[in-house]
Amino acid sequence: MEIVTHEQPTRGGLRDCVCPQECPAAIDSLINKCLHEDPDERPSAKDLCDIVLQWRIGQVGEMREARKSKEQQRIKEGQQSNENGQVLHGDQS
Question: Where are the domains of the chain?
């Protein structure tokens, strides 16, 4: 931040971390946990890996559900799709 603003950093005078408004609340919360004043309250590297892995697993599940929902809608509409979810037209397989 100081590089952009040309402000002189003060030793021990860290500013509060302010995430952009579009930043997901879970990420904002994790950032604040990582910056906790008491090092013992900060998540370990293993904790961070576990948290991010759980987020990733959740995203994969959400993507599968969305793909399944789209496929069901295509079936209702009489369309076919390949294993990548691409709609097939005519005699393509």
Answer: 17-78
